[in-house]
Design brief:
single chain, 428 residues, 36% helix, 2 domains, seven-stranded parallel beta sheet
Length: 428
């Protein structure tokens, strides 16, 4: 087979997540059989592994200029396939690229789309934080071929002949044998004592982007961070614990006991991944976080914090008054909390179909973030490694074993090439 060229469209401007997911697929492709080129916003070019071919665009440039650049790239590179790491983002990026999804399809080049949330099986609308419902065009069905990354897509599920599941992680990404020296390095870098427990809570840039301009979201993440610190204080821990918040949000915290708060606005990817795999507890507000998946598969006790119903704290004042004053101060600032499974995006109902009957979501704790008792219990149990894994080790071992049995990206691309050849020859 002649070498095939793959042009990867990764055009999100507020998160590098789709780039990371695409890289986890393309990094395993044989260089002899596949040539890969990324089309990427200029400010994210350093997210790609060193040596990765890329063509950068400035989102601030005129869309007509960017469209000319993309057209010229396609003509020069002559790709055999387009890989859209997020078909919806590629479509919405037309505001600055000049290329809508319809324009991309019109080029006549086979489109491989990434279906992150099993939208192939579950047709549904997106329910954003605050109650806004968005019904998108079904771009997933319009792709010629689909890739489903695992996790968070269900691991065991039949696919049709144009849909392929692949693991986001290789065996080398899941290694618990070398944690001690990694943790020592992390402690030295962060200035932590050897006996200090480390809880990691990253908050992505997009989690502070109020896309629908809801006033109810102003300061929401900051209040949630304060709430987590409040729960830690309430545990009255004997051992020192450091909450490592990676993110640009600003909060003030005065330590009154054994809890240390450390905010790092950004980290290089190497240190970030070392913190994930070596921390004592990983916490997240996002059910589809790749960082959460990495922590779970590396046997780091993990807590997903969600909200499953609308909470009007003014109407719950009688209950709030029975709880510590600090809790009341925080939730009164929030006033009304809406359901969310994906942080400030909301997506409670949108994500729910892939949470149900999915073994992945049994590998960690999912806790309502506003439940005083449940949050305290979840954090306490997670800080006790043996207690946390008393009922999870066998499930996790089975999950990893099946995950590693998924077809490799090379094999998947070979199948796609064969199917495309059959289509071109009119034998399918």
């Amino acid at each position: 087979m002649n070498q095939k060229r793959l042009l990867v469209w990764t055009l999100g401007t507020i998160s590098a997540g789709e780039i990371s997911i695409a890289v986890k697929f393309t990094r395993s492709l044989s260089e002899e059989m596949f040539d890969v080129m990324y089309l990427i916003p200029e400010h994210y070019k350093n997210v790609l592994p060193p040596g990765t071919k890329c063509f950068t665009l400035d989102p601030e440039d005129n869309k007509h200029l960017n469209k000319e650049k993309i057209t010229s790239l396609i003509n020069d590179y002559s790709p055999d396939f387009f890989f859209l790491s997020d078909p919806y983002t590629a479509h919405f990026a037309s505001a600055w690229t000049g290329y809508s999804y319809t324009d991309i399809k019109a080029l006549g080049i086979p489109v491989i789309g990434l279906d992150e949330y099993d939208m192939k099986k579950f047709k549904r609308k997106k329910d954003y934080y605050g109650g806004k419902i968005v019904s998108d065009r079904d771009l997933i069905e319009e792709c010629d071929y689909l890739l489903q990354d695992v996790p968070v897509n269900p691991l065991v599920e039949e696919c049709d002949d144009r849909t392929f599941k692949y693991s986001l992680f290789e065996k080398a990404d899941i290694d618990i044998t070398n944690k001690k020296p990694v943790r020592q390095e992390v402690n030295e870098t962060l200035g932590l004592d050897e006996d200090c427990k480390l809880i990691m809570l990253p908050v992505s840039t997009w989690e502070s982007v109020n896309m629908h301009r809801f006033s109810i979201l102003e300061g929401f993440i900051e209040n949630l961070l304060e709430l987590v610190l409040f729960y830690l204080d309430e545990l009255k821990l004997r051992d020192k614990v450091c909450l490592l918040h990676v993110g640009k949000q600003k909060i003030s915290y005065n330590s009154t006991g054994s809890v240390i708060y450390k905010n790092v606005k950004s980290m290089d990817s190497e240190l970030y991944e070392k913190c994930i795999v070596s921390c004592d507890v990983f916490m997240s507000f996002n059910a589809v976080s790749v960082s959460l998946s990495r922590a779970i598969l590396n046997r780091v006790p993990s807590v997903l914090m969600v909200n499953e119903k609308v909470l009007n704290f003014e109407m719950l004042e009688e209950t709030v008054q029975k709880l510590p004053q600090k809790y009341g101060d925080i939730v009164r600032r929030i006033r009304i909390a809406y359901p969310f499974y994906a942080s400030t995006f909301g997506w409670r109902k949108f994500i729910n179909p892939i949470v149900e009957n999915n073994d992945y979501y049994e590998l960690f704790k999912t806790v309502p973030v506003f439940s005083f008792s449940k949050m305290k219990t979840a954090i306490a149990e997670s800080l006790d490694y043996e207690r946390y894994y008393s009922d999870k080790t066998e499930k996790l071992d089975d999950y990893i074993r099946l995950l590693m049995q998924l077809e490799s990206p090379d094999k998947i691309m070979m199948k796609i090439c064969d199917k495309q050849k059959e289509l071109m020859n009119g034998t399918d």
